[in-house]
Amino acid sequence: DTSKGTENIIFYKGRGHKLGEVTFHFNEKDYLEPWRIESDDSRLTLDFNPILNRHSKVNLLIFASVQNQVFGTFDGEAVLDDGTEIRVKNIMGFAEKVSNRW
Asked: What span, in angstroms and rounded, lies between the C-alpha atoms of 27 and 77?
């Protein structure tokens, strides 16, 4: 439940713009294939072009962690609360898929 969280938010010029539910479309068998990131309110559409996957896997019975922290560039559009469209091109960043147990 991210209704009160800030996981799906755009910060622009010091102000937060809360998005709807954001879905990451990617191939879990190959994290270096291109990703598509979209919000259910159509305010975010991004293509993510991976460059490097920082992968780690630890399994110590009661503690386990599988991490794929993928670095790359983002291209696409975001719409702020007032309707202003922001375009991004070749912006460096990362996306990740992490599973922890302890």
From this structure: 22
pTM: 0.85
Q: What is the dihedral of CA 88, 29, 71, 54, to 10 degrees?
A: 170
Closest to 10 in 3D by CA, of 77, 75, 89, 98: 77
DSSP state of 13: T
Q: Taking a C-beta distance cutoff of 8 angstroms, is the pair 19, 39 a contact?
A: yes
Residue with tokens 């990703």: 35
What does residue 93 show for φ and ψ, rounded to 5 degrees? -175, -165
pLDDT tens-digit map of 73-97: 999 999 999 999 999 999 999 999 9
Residue with tokens 């091109």: 89
